[in-house]
Amino acid sequence: MANWQLGQISAIKWWTKTLFSLTVKAEVAPFKAGQFTKLALDTDGKRFARAYSYVNAPDDPNLEFYLVDVEQGSLSPLLSKLKEGDRVWINPQASGFFTLDEVPPSKQIWLLSTGTAIGPFLSMLQSTQIWQQYQQVYLVHGVRKTEDLSYQSLITQLQHAHPQLQFVSVVSQEENSAGLTGRITERLIDGTLARYFTTSMNIEDSQFMVCGNPEMVKEVCQILTAQGYARNRRQQPGQFTVEQYW
């Protein structure tokens, strides 16, 4: 059972009608960038809980989470109604192995995400480890529409602070003049993703971290495996590490 703590909402930001970020003030145990915890609310005598990844860096006391308001969801509709000053339960102990400690050092790392699954990558990019471990960092964010591209200001700030960071959006349901159009899997297969950055992917120099909806993660794994890459395992290091975001 989770050792729940009461936290307080210190900020809420709506990016679109369904995408929002919550910032929570609470005492939590130290965590690693890429890990997740659980938020919960009580209603009708029941406690509804769900896992969410930290968006903030581990040394930032402002605990931030990036959410989508799912109409039929058990918790997100309740969280979407919270206001500044409201209380929310939080599990102070983080979980998960989708961290840079599980990824071998390499020349370049590709961070492939869809939707709110960009969250754990933003935590990594606001930490120091990734810049010590890789010479080039490629952040890829797949969304349906351009309005779903949240955190653009933060990404720009990170690019200014770390010239080795490059970013591209991949928009599937409309033209994307600022990046690529289609799906990440399509752009991975036809090589457009690497060409966009005028670079190449290869087994010797590339690592991949993949975080998103289960179908996207499954397809990317199949594509990378077909191209000769292998999944990272503690006993046998490979080239890609994955996290299914729900």
UniProtKB/TrEMBL annotation:
Residues 2-101 form the FAD-binding FR-type domain. One of its GO terms (molecular function) is ferredoxin-NADP+ reductase activity. Keywords: FAD, Flavoprotein, NADP, Nucleotide-binding, Oxidoreductase. The keyword Nucleotide-binding applies. Gene3D superfamilies: Nucleotide-binding domain of ferredoxin-NADP reductase (FNR) module (3.40.50.80), Translation factors (2.40.30.10). InterPro entries: Cbr1-like_FAD-bd_dom, FAD-bd_FR_type, FNR_bac, FNR_nucleotide-bd, FNR_type-1, OxRdtase_FAD/NAD-bd, Riboflavin_synthase-like_b-brl. GO terms for biological process: cellular response to oxidative stress; heme catabolic process. Its cofactor is [2Fe-2S] cluster; FAD. It holds the Pfam family FAD_binding_6. Its EC number is 1.18.1.2. It catalyses: 2 reduced [2Fe-2S]-[ferredoxin] + NADP(+) + H(+) = 2 oxidized [2Fe-2S]-[ferredoxin] + NADPH. Belongs to the ferredoxin--NADP reductase type 1 family. This is ferredoxin--NADP(+) reductase. It comes from Pseudoalteromonas ulvae.
